[in-house]
Amino acid sequence: MLRFLARRFVSLLVVLLALSLVLFLLQSLSPTDAVHMMLGENASAAQVAHMRHELGLDQPLYVQYVRYLGEVLHGDLGISYQTRKPVSADLAQFVPATLELGAAGMVLAIVMGTLFAVSSLAVARWAHLLTGVYRNLILALAAAPPFLLGLLGLILFYKEWGVLPASGRIDDQSFSGPTGFMLVDTLAAGRPDLFGNALQHLLLPALAIAIGPSLVIGRVFASSLRGTLDFDYVRTAMAKGLTEGQIVRRHVIRNASNPVLSLVGLQIGAMFAGTLVVENIFGWPGLGQYMSRAIGTNDFPVISAVTLILGAGYVVVNTVVEIVQAGLDPRLRLAA
Amino acid sequence: MSPSATLPERLPFRVTLAGLGQRDWPSWLGIALFLAVFLTGVLAPVLAPYDPVQPVGTPYAAPGQFGFVLGTDTIGRDVLSRTLYGIGATVPLALAVVAIGILCGGIIGTVAGILRGWVDNVLMRVADLFLALPVPLVAIAIVAALGGGTGHLLFGISLVWWPYFARIVRGEVVSLAARPHVEAARMAGVPAWRIALRHIVPGIIPTLVVLASLDVGAATLMISALSFLGLGTPQPMPELGSDAAKNVGALLQAWWIPVIPGIGVFFVTITANLAGSGARNLLGK
């Protein structure tokens, strides 16, 4: 296991380095020049040269990369062209909102994916004629872009039925807490009413980003369940006289969940991309809105920092998933 | 391990493509629907009732009002015309992303699978590195760095799209290279490039066709997400994602303005997915 962990750790570092290298190269390849963005159009040649030297842009690329890497490791993610503030200060404000939305989306995706998987098996077993209908329904949902789901959700749940709020994270704008995670902060402050309110705000955007990944998870989970049901030990359990529920709970789910686990890790990428889009619909004050503004103004340090943070999160989560899988299934440890 | 032990259950190329002669109507229907959407988009200049960029009527006209089938937007442009043009911009782009991905991934995967050794190692390490990164985010960063626009969108997404194809094609090539007909050709002294072109590439084409057709829907969703974030063709040119994004604020008075471009994305994606599963059924994968 130690050997396995060491290998995973090394490959984690390699991937993170690759990510930082990609972002660094993009920054230097980008047609928008950092110095011009910072000094404006009317800067004199001397000013430009001075700034260039200050930023180290007159040095060879590899020196610049090492310098960039050092800054990133010290938590310095550059200065936003637009706000002139350190990007890391802005990030501290926006990251919790996005993480909360992403985490809620992931939980929903796993729960709904499991429901899809179990219900599609149940439909195949008890309502055979409906299988086609069910499959087409899932196919249709999978084709809807997250922003369309968000817009339709707003029309139905906010405008028509008035049961869910349309934007923001909480009605009481004055409320804020130490962690920046509304669900945690409201509970810590002993305000269950605000907790409920924050949960209501969270529901629609989380649903909009969760539906797509939940269908992918559900499809793989269902086929993995079907495969596991064919194993001899399941037949043995049946012969022992266990009920179907007992067999699924005790013998099937755990064995079938391994491919699903790796998929959950991979779906986080799609989830983050969905978050960036959906935040703009629900006025969610997170990285998505920050990123959209930065795209509009060519503010590449911001775009790069957001990608680095979310990308690093993605890579780390996937490494954790691999380690958990190896913990569950010793064969994986040996294979690696 | 003897090669015969690893022989995959697989039909020769001509027999596999013969699946296309089947009368499997649902599968053909899926393919026909996608072709219909594709043609609708490409023929937008003929089909669209109005100019997509110029205001042509009262702003905020509801669908059906004043003869605008899908209504007008916040400055009085025809939503139907904009959506048709938007589909016309999106579908070829999605097809191009997948075509470039298939071509690059196919070539790299084939080279790696035939040459093996260090070339294989280097190429697959690079592919794995890409696969370990969150593809949509890296695509966003690439396009944002280059500065948006259709060409950059195409380049950025294609750049992250190939490794997936390369991996699958390499696996397929390696298993094909272990087949007796390839071994026989090698013993007869046929050069490697000729073995590749004549005995291996035809064998991977059905796989490529299926992979490609299953991927067009995913490419469409990715393109619309990037366009939504403002990384596509700049306004006022019609594009599905950015038309929805720019009009989110109008949702509560005039739902059709942001929703209909989204439904456009939905139509393209669902017909592409239907065509993909149709192709898979016909080619028996």
Question: Would you mind describing this structure in some detail?
Answer:
- The complex is a heterodimer of chains A (336) and B (285).
- Chain A contains 14 helices and no strands.
- Chain A has 336 residues and is mainly alpha-helical.
- The longest helix of chain A is centred in the first third of the chain and has 40 residues.
- The relative contact order of chain A is 0.14.
- Chain B has 285 residues and is mainly α.
- Chain B has one domain: MetI-like fold, CATH 1.10.3720.10.
- Chain B is built from 11 helices and no strands.
- The relative contact order of chain B is 0.17.
- At the A-B interface, helix 1, helix 6, helix 7, helix 11 and helix 12 of A face helix 6, helix 9, helix 10 and helix 11 of B.
Determine the most extensive contact between two protein chains. A-B, 54 and 43 residues
Number of discrete helical segments of chain B: 11
The count of helical stretches of chain A stands at 14
> Segments of chain B where pLDDT lies below 50 for 5+ residues?
1-12
Biggest sheet details of chain A: none
